[in-house]
Amino acid sequence: MYVSCTLVCLSNIFSFFLCVWLYRNLRITVYTSVILTVGTFYRDDAVNIILIGFRGTGKTTAGRLVAERLGWEFIDADDYLQEKAGKDITTIFDEGGEKAFRRMEESVIAELCGLERRVIGAGGGAVLSKKNVKNMKKGGVVILLEADAETIYERLKADVKTRSQRPRLTDGDLHDEIVHLLEYRRKYYHKAADFTIDTSHLTPEETVQKAITAFEERLTA
Ligand code: S3P
Hints:
The chain is globular. It has two domains: 1-42; 45-220, 3-Layer(aba) Sandwich (Rossmann fold), CATH 3.40.50.300. The protein has a five-stranded parallel β-sheet with strand order 2-3-1-4-5, with helices on both faces. It has 221 residues and is an alpha/beta fold. It is built from nine helices and five strands. The model has no long low-confidence stretch (mean pLDDT 87). The chain binds shikimate-3-phosphate (S3P). Shikimate-3-phosphate (S3P) binds next to loops.
């Protein structure tokens, strides 16, 4: 008797959470689809979500989740560039310097921003090029993810991608580099962004919800 009551309770709890999950996801999918269908009818520009922001601000983690929620594909611009080049970013820097990497980055950003219904994670320095910013603005809604220097420092130290994809950009130590570049790039990030989300104290799920809301608002604006 006791066991069967417990099972019924557990099954009710499970059903409740399943319903909440289905409602939230279904609502977002239907709502966004309607906006997109109506929106694309009179928009010339492509409809993508482009995530920008400094290294370690969560573009890849959030980007994958946003894409999953919308039923779109997520493309990390750095991964795509490395695939095309057949080598990792650190090697590209070693062989041709930052200049060679930025040239490749421009062609990748132009290509990806011309696609439709993709979530694109742009490299942290992509906003430094006017050409990239123009392509990103034309390519969709540009969302800036921010985080404070300490959070970024801890995330970069822990991320396995740092060694192969994040060659050092200054002669200072990692912490100084982050502080210096965040300050220097701030105006570039804000000029490029349609929306800004500070991810320092947000869970990935909260970041995703804010990004989707920002995207829907922009499409209906
Ligand atoms: C860079 C950031 C990296 C990568 C490259 C240069 C930068 O991308 O594009 O190492 O200039 O900040 P992530 O932001 O994905 O780490």
